[in-house]
């Protein structure tokens, strides 16, 4: 009887185990499929750039849905498998502190919208970190993600090369069914884009420097796969892709990446055995040497094709590239089959020495230093390179504008951090606040340094948590690496390369603002530590393991919240785009336009772009109908949004407009003065404040209140003096550094200040002020008024500008009397 019972128990256990295994298998393949699809889809959504603008938001909202589905499936998987065993298991819990610190910072956020998006983005990272960690505990999962990353990365490179060689329509035809919407374009917008340096390859990212960072990772991974693959065809495939990657790298014209590449290489080499280091450097030098052979030609072809497609040039470019790629692939196979054993034999004794793994990197540093001297001094070596690349290399120095500008960004970021030191100013702190702290009126919604931008987002608490997480990941990886055999190390090493490439380059650029690259970073982290063998000690873990349902339950709850939130965000985005499309179609029915816009705002309240759109429409309708309900609704919506987005300048501008519309001059002046502290380089605000002070002074003069008159007019000149002081600061910038936006006196400023001086009888000073605004077209009312007052101030001094006078009178004969009225006026 007891034997029968025992058999039943065993059978039940076996059945339960089988069912659990089946469920895990289904979840495994579902998660693997999602990961592969995301790796293909994400880069073609402009790299999921977090541009803090509605133009970039839809793909981000879609990725929130992806992440929530991943977390839902993971939570189900973890109900069967979650337990704390190895030290790396703690990383899954620590990872959640990243979105938590971002969530805490939302309570002091400079922008509620930016901060909320940043929290969701951090959850994406945790989702893919967790997916990679659990999926790659099995070799099959590791193989799927490894080759998923490699194949999709190679496809991105091929896509970029197709655009460089003018086949942009064909390239886009391959991906347009799932890529970001580029309508009405028939190609992927800005895959090659031009700036002052000429055409630059950006591929899917629309930003050359971040594409170059991606290429550093892919290049070093490809060469590693060349030296570690055992099959000749595998060596050949990876080697064949190396030349296109190097050519792509060069034609990004990224100076920063040229500097970062050798640094990353030096962080990779010590992890290889000396024989592998030698092989790695041979392939590295050989592939770059062969690339230089065709670099001039393919660069010139790409630059020419950017102006217009020519089939013969395109074919020539492809032929050159394919031939050299094939030559290197053959050489790579021969080196690995025949030279590699010889290298291994040569270095076998040397490998036994304690610090042998450092010797070759040290030699590489010395040789690299000599190479740098040859490149950056007048030795003629750079003449082997195309002119645009040669110019970029020769301009690498600490006085170039990009270095100086980055230095300014970093100083300004520290000023921001000093005001929000503990929890930061919320996600998106830099784009929300940089205009308040900027040294000069540049436009840069990115701080060009991931770590500094992270610091401004979440303060010292957040950065400490993140750095702790980083240190923990690399500690686990390196500790395991030391005790693993070479074959085990090689399985995951490419993800160390990816992580270190992206992290190092992100010190000088905003690569992590591309959520795709951030996802790759966290995916790499998860894979790097998923085979951890270090046992977690302590009895406390058994307490947690006894409640193994708790962690999956929390993950499920978070994932469900994220799913419903992201679906709402996607729906709101669709409604907003629908409203814009209706308005653009010429449909003037207010209800048709506002209905989807109201739906968008109900699903995503206080979104600054949605609010701006609706407020602008309501003000337009109010101006046509003078119905107060439209004005009241607009101002209520505006005031509500400004509480959440106080540093959003388009909303600030609408608020000023609404106050001026109702002649609330003093309130407008007070609001404008407040906003000057947040936007000290906005010429428009100085213009408004000076004009309002002038108008209020005139009103005080008319009511015989001399004290108030002088108070307002003195404030106008104080503002002007502040403006001039800031202008003098710009003159102190290094000549290599651009000041950014124009910062010059305007005609309205000159008119307002000139009128004050004219009324005060200081006609020479008035003349100088009016002269600021007399150069524009006479059709412009501000220009016409400036000329009128200018000519009157000249006549008051017994001077004249006959040519300008004749020009004005010819345009409007009534101006003769207007000028005379000013001359005769008694103030």
From TrEMBL:
<feature type="transmembrane region" description="Helical">
    <location>
        <begin position="550"/>
        <end position="570"/>
    </location>
</feature>
<protein>
    <submittedName>
        <fullName>Polymerase</fullName>
    </submittedName>
</protein>
<feature type="transmembrane region" description="Helical">
    <location>
        <begin position="458"/>
        <end position="478"/>
    </location>
</feature>
<feature type="transmembrane region" description="Helical">
    <location>
        <begin position="64"/>
        <end position="80"/>
    </location>
</feature>
<feature type="transmembrane region" description="Helical">
    <location>
        <begin position="232"/>
        <end position="250"/>
    </location>
</feature>
<dbReference type="InterPro" id="IPR011990">
    <property type="entry name" value="TPR-like_helical_dom_sf"/>
</dbReference>
<keyword id="KW-1133">Transmembrane helix</keyword>
<keyword id="KW-0812">Transmembrane</keyword>
<keyword id="KW-0472">Membrane</keyword>
<feature type="transmembrane region" description="Helical">
    <location>
        <begin position="355"/>
        <end position="376"/>
    </location>
</feature>
<dbReference type="InterPro" id="IPR007016">
    <property type="entry name" value="O-antigen_ligase-rel_domated"/>
</dbReference>
<feature type="transmembrane region" description="Helical">
    <location>
        <begin position="315"/>
        <end position="335"/>
    </location>
</feature>
<dbReference type="InterPro" id="IPR051533">
    <property type="entry name" value="WaaL-like"/>
</dbReference>
<dbReference type="Pfam" id="PF04932">
    <property type="entry name" value="Wzy_C"/>
</dbReference>
<feature type="transmembrane region" description="Helical">
    <location>
        <begin position="284"/>
        <end position="309"/>
    </location>
</feature>
<feature type="transmembrane region" description="Helical">
    <location>
        <begin position="118"/>
        <end position="135"/>
    </location>
</feature>
<feature type="transmembrane region" description="Helical">
    <location>
        <begin position="514"/>
        <end position="530"/>
    </location>
</feature>
<feature type="domain" description="O-antigen ligase-related">
    <location>
        <begin position="317"/>
        <end position="467"/>
    </location>
</feature>
<feature type="transmembrane region" description="Helical">
    <location>
        <begin position="256"/>
        <end position="272"/>
    </location>
</feature>
<dbReference type="GO" id="GO:0016020">
    <property type="term" value="C:membrane"/>
</dbReference>
<feature type="transmembrane region" description="Helical">
    <location>
        <begin position="147"/>
        <end position="166"/>
    </location>
</feature>
<feature type="transmembrane region" description="Helical">
    <location>
        <begin position="92"/>
        <end position="112"/>
    </location>
</feature>
<feature type="transmembrane region" description="Helical">
    <location>
        <begin position="204"/>
        <end position="225"/>
    </location>
</feature>
<feature type="transmembrane region" description="Helical">
    <location>
        <begin position="26"/>
        <end position="44"/>
    </location>
</feature>
